[in-house]
Input
Amino acid sequence: MEFLGGWRVLRGCALPGPSPCALALVALHPRHGVALVDPLPQLTPDAELRLQQRLRQARFGAVYGETWPPALHLALHDGELARLPEVLAEAFRGRPAPEMPGGDAWMDTVARALMPGLPLASAPSPSAGRMRPKARPGRRWARPFGLRWRWTLPLAVLLLGLAGGWVLWPASPRAPALVAAPRRPPPVVAPARPPD
Output
């Protein structure tokens, strides 16, 4: 699989039919649809119907209903294949854009149906405005338990310090005693004797 000017290009895609065949290439675009391309003079008969048949076999309709991406079958000269993005953009000019649920996820489904076993998880979407950067090697330790080490270590030191201070902090001398001292009985004073 390769990317040319916003088109995702698949080569050697098999199509079912009475005599199974492989197209020279299939190009997918989120704003145009599917281009089925043969090199002249070869021309696959009923290529668009065969594509729909293959998508039915792959249960495309279970996800997208009976909505199909726009498909166009082209037979191109070698010179036109060399400037494929421009030729395809011209061929699709004036045609309605795909109105598929789920944005451009339909492209992965079509690609998997035409090329089983194709690893698509790492393939960037041509229509993605902002691509997530790849994870840098050697940075797996950076987020244990969902936190960064630069925040985790100081936080752990702070919590240990607070816990240790709470346990070891001496009692204040002015703090009231928790156990009251036993009360002494008042001194017994002998009554005064009257004078004789």
